[in-house]
Amino acid sequence: MGCSYTLDWTTCDEPPETQDYADYVNLADTRSAIHVGDVQFGDDGEVYNNLIGDIVKSQRETVEALLEEYPVMFYNGNNDIVCHHTAVQEMFFAMENWSAKDEFLTTPQEVYYADGIDEPAGYLR
Description:
Blueprint (H helix, E strand, L loop, with lengths): L18 H7 L2 H6 L12 H10 L4 H10 L15 H10 L6 H6 L3 E3 L9 E3 L1
Antiparallel strand pairs: 1-2
């Protein structure tokens, strides 16, 4: 395909508003809320390069442990190539040690609409 943008398989070009995320995360109030002090967010590939060996490792057991103790929201984009919804869903099916697995998997999925938007923003369960 020749596209380098991996967050949406429907486009090859990174939307200009993608930079809004970095601008938001670098605001002083945001940095304070997420407890990173004066550390600035950078998207120079350093984090990716340092974690590349861990990216393909399953974190299912860690996620199961977290789900037992904390409310967690998972988000992944419907058109995301890297963290696609099918893989995340399969992780839930494969869970072995999460006490609420059966309840979660039998809960009907609902379409979520953001305020003022006519098309689905996502799905809730």
